[in-house]
Design a protein that fits this description.
Chain A has one domain. Chain A is built from 5 helices and no strands. In chain A, helix 2 packs antiparallel against helix 4 and helix 4 crosses helix 5. The longest helix of chain A is centred in the N-terminal third of the chain and has 39 residues. In chain B, helix 7 packs antiparallel against helix 10, helix 7 packs across helix 12 and helix 8 crosses helix 10. The longest helix of chain B has 27 residues. By secondary structure, chain B is of the alpha+beta class. Chain B starts with 5 loop residues before the first helix and ends with a helix. Helix content of chain B is 44%, strand content 17%. In chain B, 40% of the residues are buried. Chain B folds into 2 domains: 108 residues, Phosphorylase Kinase, domain 1, CATH 3.30.200; 218 residues, Aminoglycoside phosphotransferase (APH), C-terminal lobe (Aminoglycoside 3'-phosphotransferase, Chain: A, domain 2), CATH 3.90.1200.10. Classes of the chains: A mainly alpha, B alpha+beta. Chains A and B meet through helix 2, helix 3, helix 4 and helix 5 of A and helix 7, helix 11 and helix 12 of B.
Chain lengths: 144, 339
């Protein structure tokens, strides 16, 4: 058991310092690099918070899609291994043309979209929000 | 490659230019390394050249391979393609000299005219200074692209350009599929779906032309009045001209201006129309869409290979490392396009 601050609190403190104190003090190409450093720290903080629930639901969704029983896994390492293994199984099926058309294609697209959006929840949540806003704006408006 | 100090570079460069241009004397000033240039080093300098009592002064840049592991012929090829474009009155820097002799500066390089202006796409899309440029650039870029596709590779002796075979689109898809299998460390079902989508829709390419290969707003020097110069010709090849049209529409070059698909500047239809008017060749929207999907997929595979450059230790860089987490942005765009 470690003392407070938590890993997330430490990373966010460091990222805030970089953004508030270092970025304005540095110019040009170096400033861009420093922004990247702060961004990387925020990605890691989000991953510490979100990875466990996201990979758990991904494993469940992949198992259902591939017709497997939901595995009972606890450790994060086991969950990651299961997600990667089923990901390979899914890509082999896609390569073999099994998701080219038909009802299963829709299921595959939904699961893959969920996995991709989960990656963006950690890597770039603002990009994901922007994308969802564009898609909603493009949908025909329902008349009330 | 041994690191050559800037002072020594200037000394060697002065001798090289004096010999190549048969000048009586050459003086180099303000020699400095420019920021950016991830794949090539860029150095800027002012050059005074004297022959028979007459002095000519030009602003120049040197574009150099970073190390000896690169394909040694590529600098000469890029030089020759830019020279052909210049001869056809396409806005490019005038190129002066090329050398692949490592004894001169350690690795291959060429020297060209320095064009003043801005290259940061975000400034183009956001700053008031460039309001006029934003209006005129889609049509300018379409007209310039039509001219690029008219360059005659035979006339300009560009016979070294990669020949795509019977079907340029299929050749490109297969090439990137190979790269993807080589670089990807995790399963990417979104990319697999995109490959299946592309392989089912390969356009029959009627036209085969010179293709710029990296035609996007990040490779344009611009001013408040519009386009000044087209840069980075190292990926030029023979193929389907629609490849450049699709690449221009890739989401990553919009910098958030997603309501304007062509480089964050305007709608596809206007760009296609301007290209048709300038080239006399019709743009098949299905073919353009094929190449837009291919372009997004290609960019996604590039993000994986850039992250691998860091992971494998070739170049340790936080920027390259972080690009590995941008792959998902491209996956999302591909799902939006193919669903």
């Amino acid at each position: 058991m470690q003392d407070r601050p938590t890993s997330v609190e430490l990373l966010e403190a460091a990222a805030d310092f970089v953004d508030r104190e270092l970025v304005p003090a540095i110019e040009g190409a170096r400033q861009f690099q420093v922004r990247v450093v702060a961004n990387v720290m925020r990605i890691v903080a989000r991953e510490i918070k979100l990875e466990d629930p996201l990979v758990r639901s991904e494993v469940k969704a992949l198992a259902r899609l591939l017709g497997h029983d939901a595995p009972h896994l606890h450790s994060l390492d086991d969950l990651r291994t299961a997600a990667a293994g089923m990901g390979e199984e899914l890509t082999a099926k896609i390569r073999a043309g099994e998701a080219d058309d038909g009802a299963w294609r829709g299921e595959v697209l939904a699961v893959v979209r969920q996995s991709v959006e989960d990656k963006l929840r950690i890597a770039n949540p603002r990009y994901l929000e922007g994308d969802i806003a564009i898609r909603n704006a493009a949908k025909p408006q329902k008349e009330i | 490659m041994d690191k050559i100090e800037p002072g020594e570079m200037v000394r060697r460069l002065t001798g090289f230019i004096r010999t190549e241009g048969r000048f009586d004397s050459v003086a180099i000033e303000n020699f400095r390394k420019m920021p950016g240039g991830a794949s090539r080093e860029i150095w800027s300098f002012d050059c005074s050249m004297e022959r028979g009592g007459e002095t000519n002064r030009r602003a120049m840049v040197l574009r150099r391979d970073p190390g000896a592991h690169n394909i040694s012929t590529s600098r000469r090829h890029e030089f020759m393609v830019i020279r052909a474009a210049f001869a056809e009155r396409i806005p490019v820097p005038e190129v002066f000299w090329v050398s692949e002799d490592p004894a001169v500066l350690g690795s291959a390089f060429f020297i060209m005219e320095r064009i003043e202006g801005e290259t940061l796409a975000r400034r183009l899309l956001r700053d008031d200074t460039y309001a006029r440029a934003r209006e005129v650039m889609p049509a300018q870029l379409a007209e310039i692209l039509a001219k690029i596709h008219r360059i005659d590779p035979v006339k300009h002796k560009l016979d070294f350009l990669a020949e795509p075979g019977d079907n340029a689109a299929l050749t490109e898809v297969r090439r990137y599929q190979e790269n993807f299998r080589l670089f990807a460390l995790e399963p990417h079902p979104a990319f697999e779906l995109a490959f299946r989508w592309l392989l089912g829709r390969v356009p029959k390419t009627a036209r085969k032309t010179l293709v710029h290969g990296d035609y996007r707003i990040g490779n344009v020097i611009f001013g408040p009045e519009g386009v000044r110069s087209i840069l980075d010709w190292e990926l030029a090849h023979l193929g389907d001209p629609m490849e450049d049209v699709g690449w221009m529409c890739v989401r990553a070059w919009r910098f958030g201006n997603d309501q304007k698909p062509v480089g964050g500047l305007g709608p596809r239809e206007d760009f296609f129309h301007a290209y048709e008017k300038a080239s006399g060749a019709a743009v098949d929207p299905e073919a353009a869409r094929f190449w837009e999907v291919f372009g997004n997929l290609r960019w996604g595979i590039i993000t994986i290979s850039q992250a691998r450059t860091h992971i494998d230790g070739f170049v340790k860089s936080v920027e390259l490392a972080s690009i590995g987490r941008r792959t998902a942005e491209t996956e999302l765009e591909l799902l939006n396009l193919i669903e």
